[in-house]
Amino acid sequence: MKNINASIVTIGDELLIGQVIDTNSAWMAQQLNAIGITVIRRIAVGDNGDDIIRILDDESKWAEVILMTGGLGPTSDDKTKKVLLQYFGGRLVVNEDALANVKYLFEKVFKRPVTDINLEQAQVPDVCEVIQNKRGTAPGMIFYKNNIIYVSMPGVPYEMKGIMEDAVIPMLKQKFILPIIVHRTLLTAGIGESALAEKIKDFEDALPKDIRVAYLPTYGMVRLRLSTSGFDKKITEEKINQEFEKLKNFTKEYLVTDEDEPLQAAVGKILTAKNKTVSTAESCTGGYIAHLITTVPGSSKYFEGSIVSYSNEVKKQRLGVHENTLNTYGAVSEETVIEMLNGLLHQMNTDYGIAVSGIMGPDGGAPDKPVGTAWMAAGDKKNYRTQKINLRFNRERNIEVTAMMALNFLRKFIVGV
Question: Which option is the CATH number for 180-257: 3.40.50.960, 3.30.300.30, 3.40.50.1820, 3.30.70.2860?
Fold first, then answer.
């Protein structure tokens, strides 16, 4: 038994110029990983036949499975089918099932006449296995060459996912004896990547050779992931779980959650467990904290809403911030966010609240309050905490980091750390 390696090739000029963001390869990698296939490379290539052939030659040196998406459309810029015909040989033939599918979609679903170009979608190389596309007109194709499996699928994510779930994943599970790949992930906050690496150095040095640790930093937080594989599910999981408990102990001072989940989901779980509610008062983040919270399914159970008090007038009228406070201390001040929080809890009547005001840039800074300065207050109707942060990024990243730091500040208040 051995590990099976896969390469993912996404095809299309639009990917190389950034006109379309490649989401296919990330999703496909997750699906392959879940069944025990290791993705060793993800490559984007343009609609150039020579380049595609060179990539297929290169990837066949390392991978037992090569998955391709894109270039199967009916127009002249979609060249993948012709390239595959050149690479694998054979001739184009009409697949009757694919032809029936094209006719059905245009006549019954799209309510449009079928053109000759549309009918060409049903033509496939006679050396491939055809995968019917239940969500579109271009069928998927499986080729075999030198003991390597090549799969070509449409680039439309919705169609590709249907083909992967219905046919490709079941086929791969049948073809190979696959190992169990296990990951355990935790999220830390309040410590940088390099400092965290130093803190867990002894743990890393003592890890078994078949367990790997990965650092995944983002927005002032670091995810730590342990990974391993094996052919006995119980033994593999027990082994990694033992090491994961040690890792949790090494990082307990900074641990946010021991699940592979975003911070907002962890906060939501805490609120749900306590049967409590929360609201936000946002100035500089413009509702981004509320956006993060509501990305979690079921957040309506604990999130009541947000008051986006971007202007001082809204701060005064909706949150009850005193004009004297604004004149004396400014909108970006500890005094202002305390009054924002009090007004929020009064208006929204939630158990907890978080208020934020800051200067995100690129303009608006001053010597005593440079760009990147923000104040936040988290609390309930009895107690509160405040914190000042100073960031150094551009406007977009300042907003994102402020929102994440505010969420973690709220979490720490709720759990009392």
Answer: 3.30.70.2860
